[in-house]
Amino acid sequence: MPARPIVLYPDQRLRQTAEPVTQFDAALRTLAADLFDTMQAAPGIGIAAPHIGVALRVVVLDLRDTSGARTYINPEIIWASDETIRHEEGSVSMPGVTEQIERPARVRVRYQDLDGQDQIEDSDGLRAICHQHEIDQLNGLFWIQRLSALRRTRLIARYEKIRRARSG
């Protein structure tokens, strides 16, 4: 499957709420495969369909651990711990910059698999961070919106400097 072009910040499609998936068919499997290939090429460890301009609730994670790549359709967080952790986050849609974000340390996610079967997954650490990050994206919340105004302004300035250097 081919890698698809990635939508880059500040494209407004990154602020739109993705629509629920209702058709579990070959087109969905192709989309999931394309997301995986795009994520690998970026490179990244997580990607949501809006990152390639598709407004559907599809996420692919590959934390390069023993569990392999996983696809989550219509994921939602149904529980989050009070305990929090800080982790360096970034985005395939804003390459070259990262920042520390604080999030719940553990979450429970309800989702559907590629066959439309309901699933529940408990996760902690990096997988919990990735779930929250990508579900935020599905909800139109780009990760930098979790930063203070000052940290967000500084990060955007760093990103713009990197973009100018790459294009010039």
> What structural class results from the helix and strand content?
alpha+beta
Q: Distance N terminus to C terminus?
A: 31 Å
Q: Give the strand order of the largest sheet, numbering strands 1, 2, ... along the chain.
A: 1-2-3-6-7
Spatial shape: globular
Helix content: 25-40%
For the largest beta-sheet, the strand count, sense and barrel status come to: 5 strands, antiparallel
H/E topology pattern: HEEEEEEEHH
Give a count of the beta strands, DSSP E runs of length 2 or more.
7
| Low-confidence sequence ranges | none
Average pLDDT confidence is: 96
Features:
alpha+beta, five-stranded antiparallel sheet, single chain, 26% strand, 3 helices, 168 residues
Nutshell version of this structure?
With 168 residues, the chain is of the alpha+beta class. It contains 3 helices and 7 strands.
